[in-house]
Amino acid sequence: MLFHKIILSSIKYRLGLYSPMLIAVAISLCLIGAASLVSSNFNHILNREMKKYGANVIVKTKGKIPINGQHVALQVNDTVIGNRKISMASGSIKNLLQINPAWTAKGAPSIMVGNQVAGELNLKQGQTIEMHGVVGEVSVFESGTDFDSFIFIDKKAVEPNMYMVRTDHPEQYRSMNAVIMEEMVRTKYAVLSSIKKLMFFIALISVVASITTVINLCRVDAASRRKEFGIFKSLGASMFSIWKLLSFEFSILALVAFVAGLAGSVLLSWLVLYYAAGASLTMNLQSVVVIAVTSLVSFSFAALIFIIESKRVHVMEELRNE
Amino acid sequence: MFSFLIRIAFKAAFVQKFRFVSLTLALAIASLLLVVLSALFLNAESRMAVELGGVPNLVVEPQNDLLNTNTLSVDDIRKIKAPEYFWHNNLANIAPITNSNATANGSPVKLAGTWFDKTLQVGDQQYALGLLKFASWKYTGTRPSANSVILGANLTLSGPVVVSINGNKETFHVAGKISTGSFWDNYVFISSDALSKMTGNKGFDKLLISALFKPNDELAAKAERMGENKLSPEEYEKWMCSAYIGVVAKTLKETLPTTVIKVQRRITEVQAGIIKTSSGIFMALFLLTLIASLTAIYSAEKMYVASHVRDFGIMTALGASPRKMFAQLLTEIAIASLLSALIIYFASSPLVRYVSMAVYGIRFEATTALMVVAVLIPFAVSSLALGFLRKNLRQDTIKLLN
């Protein structure tokens, strides 16, 4: 009972000192937490952006094959228009555009003509044509790939011979003689590595800042602490009881800083991710542990300095406050 | 009066060594943190663009029709790397490609003649360009020469490779393998000089370009949606002066009129998306760092003033006016700010270089503007702390002494 009373009185007495200390530590913890959470969520953001790459596996095979993930089955035939050989593909245009978000096609077309073939055949956007029984307006698209010399018709592929697949695990298609496009995957890992290093550096500096702030602010109170320890000792308190008192007091501060830091980190990370990247926040245990440990270590350092100091100084000197 | 103030401030700083040093260090560390992280954040977007620009995102092909068969030449590359072409610095790498049907050791292969790593002189500038300069294409092997081939990652040829084109045979040694993550992994690359010697054809079929560009915003989207001709004159001028991928492609077409410029949209969309979101995140984190640094400086000053309260009491008891004490404290904080500004000035450049090397693998320089701002920060925050200072000085003498 007395033990709790002493701790609470001490905190109450030093509220003026502890409040700026807690605010400063909580802000540092927010920065550490935000860096950690943003870093761990960055992978999801990159994965989302990587989807814009579109189909990353093209399997050229006749008949049905087992496919996992977003895909479109196409029946590709060569056809002669005028005196030109054109690749004509039947399949679901809706799925095709869903799978290739970077392709620029206007409206909900039933006939999509690559810009290269459109130029060669002098086909214009919106022009009504009939092709393989499908009547519709031409939608000229641009992909920057060989598909710019294709014509796509919104018609079921009866005998599919090409599959365009968008998957996060393209390795499973290697055995199917597929063309696997991984050119952005390496870039993704390079970007991710830079981001992680940057966030680690921010967190590291913030940890140092947090510890320095606590130690600095605790030193303001060093004189009155010394006197208190002197009184405790002269009343018969052992070093262990002083250590217990100090540990409990600083544990409460560490807990308050942890709760404030965690709440701030979650809020800040959510704000950063939502407003800057349009992404939602996924919590991870590692970030929570980092915040908790930093908070605990910061206050433990300060407590440790007091204890070491008290052990080295004679009780009379402490009472004289020298 | 002024010299007395300086003297007493120095004396106070000397007596309270620990507190004064910790105030100075806190000011210096917080401002340094801001300088270093600002340099990282402000350069992050361009660094990200370079990181992402390691793959070709534009393909230039000659425009052929029934009457004319065009090819591309070294002069075309010189034209787009010359200072006359506005976006020449945005073209990070260019690799010419000439396709050929060939056999290697008797088996049919896809063969491409290219520059491996060529130094191109354009005016008084030199550019290192070629296949091995695409940062995201990983090459393993020895330095290739004119007698070497580089194999795409999916190919397994070994020993001397006999390449045959239309009956012309040449023997090459395998210098290494290149992994591109694209259909180029199925190609055998030889130097364009060696290929032209075998085929007699000096032109290129296409140029692979990795261009650094600005992600599309509303204006670029409008230009793409409605066509740039529908933009108002002001909008058009702004659009043309921004490095959107559409603008780079359009100006390339203007510089090389007999070509087709293919924007690799699947790549540019990913690049733009990552740059856009990363920039937003970096800006937000920069603001957080700014707030954290300012709070750290404010707490350090508050600590310093709080540690002085008893001194105020003694001085008031001896007859000092709050104005004089305020002036003395102000001088002490100014000295600390000045010292921390000196530390920042000398430490920021090497620190920014070291940290940027550790994080990005390249050296950034701290910009002068940033350093001036950082040096001013301690002074600026010190003036913010004045309110707190005044509140303490207005207290009753007995309270101050207790």
Summarize it.
The complex is a heterodimer of chains A (322) and B (402). Chain A is α+β, with helices and mostly antiparallel strands and 322 residues long.
Share in β-strands of chain A: 15-25%
Percentage of residues in helical conformation of chain B? 40-55%
Order of helices and strands of chain A: HHEEEHEHEEEEEHHHHH
Taken in chain order, the helices and strands of chain B follow as HHEHEEEEEEEEEHEHHHEHHHHHH
- Per DSSP E runs of 2 or more residues, the count of β-strands of chain A stands at 9
How would you characterize the largest beta sheet of chain B? 6 strands, mixed, barrel
Structural class, from secondary structure content of chain B?
alpha+beta
Helix percentage range of chain A: 55-70%
The parts of chain A where pLDDT drops under 50 for at least 5 residues are: none
The biggest beta sheet of chain A, please?
A: 9 strands, mixed
The pLDDT mean of chain A sits at 84
Oligomer status: heterodimer
Strand content of chain B: 15-25%
Number of helices of chain B: 13
Please count the beta strands of chain B (DSSP E, at least 2 residues each). 12
Describe this entry's structure for a reader.
With 322 residues, chain A is α+β, with helices and mostly antiparallel strands. In chain A, 58% of the residues lie in helices and 16% in strands. Chain A has 9 helices and 9 strands. In chain A, strands 5-6-4-7-3-2-8-1-9 form a 9-stranded mixed β-sheet. In chain A, helix 1 crosses helix 7 and helix 2 runs antiparallel to helix 5. The longest helix of chain A is centred in the C-terminal third of the chain and has 39 residues. Chain A starts with a helix and ends with a helix. The mean pLDDT of chain A is 84. In chain B, strands 2-3-10-7-9-8 form a 6-stranded mixed beta barrel. In chain B, strands 4-5 form a two-stranded antiparallel sheet. The radius of gyration of chain B is 32 Å and the shape is elongated. The relative contact order of chain B is 0.17. The model of chain B has no long low-confidence stretch (mean pLDDT 83). Classes of the chains: A alpha+beta (322), B alpha+beta (402). At the A-B interface, helix 2, helix 5 and helix 7 of A face helix 2, strand 12, helix 8 and helix 10 of B.
